[in-house]
């Protein structure tokens, strides 16, 4: 991308996955603007761009919109803006640990257990609109009692989260290091791990103190607090963040150049023969499929250009955890 390509984060306050990306942006010193979204559907700002994907956050660079926080961070690692990337400052051993930590927090039940511990302690557990929205995202449909599921499994979730915290306390942090990969400042490993625990620890009344507390796990709580302070200090050093309306973002992206100048379609991939595509995550939010023309397809990434909004944007999704297929006949021939 060029240095003046706009970077816009679509998020809402207190979104834990957004904090993951916000932490990265702050620690790298990457300037960005934001478009605040409702916590639940509908999200007309995204519909205006032809995006049905329903999870938060999303990040646009120029006219390209990136879905899913792992792909967002991978794209930001290649961004030649702000401070040097984390990868450029880490040894192979440190990079390996960072990848393992990312997999631990995202590919296991780690985060979902934190949700089950936290949610019953908040007013959201009694908010019918929120519960219906999250039942839809989980794929359970309107008959699914999301609140009952979360509350019934909370005791087991407390044990699982406690075990995860104990793992950090007695292994990586046991030697008194400040940061997980022994970096001089917060590194990618800290970004990949601290976001979820920060969300839990900073939510009033969410931590079951008889099982999880600074007295029981002083090193983990001190590490999370160090991380929060480092991110807060870095955020203060960023240029002023402008909050844009959906109309402003659509106008901005409509005039912006594409982030990718040479998208690749791997000719031997069996999906490339279809004319129109829809893409969606397979774990949550799978009912909401974004439709568009295929412009990039590799073993790592899917890129389609939207065909249903007022402004066409290029939507990038990771191959891992997402599904891409030919769209229905009435959608496939859209241009």
Provide a descriptive summary of the structure in words.
It is a single chain. With 335 residues, the protein is an alpha+beta fold. Helices cover 40% and strands 14% of the residues. It has helices at residues 16-28, 44-47, 69-77, 92-106, 110-118, 128-138, 146-152, 154-170, 188-201, 218-237, 246-255, 329-332, and strands at 7-11, 33-36, 58-61, 64-67, 277-281, 290-297, 301-306, 314-318, 322-326. The protein has a 9-stranded mixed β-sheet with strand order 2-1-3-4-8-7-6-5-9, with helices on both faces. β6 and β7 (301-306) form a beta hairpin. α1 (16-28) crosses α9, α1 (16-28) crosses α10 and α9 (188-201) packs across α10. The longest helix is centred in the C-terminal third of the chain and has 20 residues, at 218-237. The radius of gyration is 20 Å and the shape is globular. The chain starts with 6 loop residues before the first strand and ends with a helix.
Write the layout of secondary structure elements.
Layout: E1 7-11, H1 16-28, E2 33-36, H2 44-47, E3 58-61, E4 64-67, H3 69-77, H4 92-106, H5 110-118, H6 128-138, H7 146-152, H8 154-170, H9 188-201, H10 218-237, H11 246-255, E5 277-281, E6 290-297, E7 301-306, E8 314-318, E9 322-326, H12 329-332
Parallel strand pairs: 1-2, 4-8
Antiparallel strand pairs: 1-3, 3-4, 5-6, 5-9, 6-7, 7-8
Helix pairs in contact: 1-3, 1-9, 1-10, 4-9, 5-8, 9-10
